[in-house]
Design a protein that fits this description.
- The protein has helices at 8-19, 25-45, 56-68, 73-92, 120-128, 135-150, 154-159, 189-202, 221-235, 243-256, 261-268, 273-276, 286-299; strands spanning 165-166, 171-174, 183-186.
- The chain is mostly helical.
- The chain has a three-stranded antiparallel beta sheet.
- The longest helix is centred in the N-terminal third of the chain and has 21 residues, at 25-45.
Length: 300
């Protein structure tokens, strides 16, 4: 059953997101769901008024209703961001006198939990626990190396093709990235060496970089998770270790070495360094160390 279209201005905004903002189909669907949700709620709070004619107090009443419905802080922050974008579009197109949500946010209410990452010793232990005796073992080892050495998402790893490896430049092209933001990642020497050996053994110049052993199909995210879980078991690392853990470890270890936050954001495919800022939570001494370095400079 097809849903009724939203207000023409909202439909125009959604088309703008897709055509001009180049947002992914999934993102546009997500925004549409939010705007339909708030439109239906506001129909009972302030019936007959479009979203861009409402006051801030109307949105505060709506947010309170969502809180009472047990919506998480992350969900509320997302809703506000989606509606703020629409109101900004309405203001710029002359349909509203102002954006009542401009500058309004509930990000401070969002609890940012530091993602789990491995210590350097645990990461080394994990790599050492990946055997090289069989072809399947060597494939799995390269998968773990790319997750940790390049900070790939699981979806990015399974989407890699042989032709994405730029051997002359020693770089990896991540073309199917989250948010349609492709990027190029330098390959660490140790990763590049083992990747080259794997490519020679695999053979072929095109197609999926990693394939299943039985039917030679492209691997799935479930396959990747099983490989990482088994490696962590052999390494005797306690706790839940996932492909995302290795991605977080990549970012954390770079930050621990003093790599600029903007560089890490670029390598990880984040829209801005703000997204990468969560990794500062795992380095509680970094700000204090920076201040100490500044004082040393003043004294010299």
């Amino acid at each position: 059953m097809m849903q009724q279209p939203l207000d023409p201005l909202i439909e125009g905004y959604l088309s703008y997101l897709a055509d001009v903002g180049r947002k992914t189909k999934r993102t546009v669907i997500d925004v549409r769901c939010t705007l339909r949700r708030v439109s239906e709620a506001m129909g009972t709070i302030r019936p007959g008024l479009p979203l861009w004619r409402l006051e801030l107090r109307d949105y505060l009443r709506w947010l309170e209703q969502e809180r009472q419905a047990k919506r998480t802080s992350n969900s509320l922050a997302k809703y506000v961001s989606h509606v703020r974008g629409l109101l900004d579009y309405a203001w710029r197109s002359g349909r509203a006198e102002r954006n009542v949500l401009d500058g309004f946010g509930i990000h401070d209410a969002v609890s940012r939990t530091a993602p789990r990452s491995l210590t350097l010793e645990e990461a080394q232990q994990l790599i050492l626990a990946c055997p090289r005796s069989r072809a399947l073992d060597r494939r799995n080892r390269v998968m773990v190396l790319l997750l940790y050495g390049c900070g790939l998402r699981t979806s990015e790893l399974v989407s890699l093709n042989v032709q994405d490896i730029q051997r002359e430049r020693r770089e990896l092209d991540v073309l199917k990235a989250k948010g349609d933001r492709p990027r190029t990642i330098p390959l660490p020497d140790a990763v590049f060496t083992e990747l080259l050996a794997y490519l020679l053994e695999r053979g072929g110049k095109r197609g999926a970089l990693f394939r299943t052993e039985a039917k030679r199909w492209r691997i799935t995210p479930k396959d990747v998770s099983e490989v990482v879980r088994e490696a962590a078991r052999r390494a005797e690392i306690t706790g839940h270790v996932t492909p995302r853990t290795l991605r977080h470890t990549f970012a954390t270890h770079l930050m621990d070495r003093g790599v600029d936050l903007a560089v890490i954001a670029s390598l990880m495919g984040h829209r801005s360094p703000h997204e990468t800022g969560v990794y500062l939570h795992v380095l509680p001494k970094r700000r204090e160390a920076a201040v100490r370095q500044l004082r040393k400079g003043d004294e010299s």
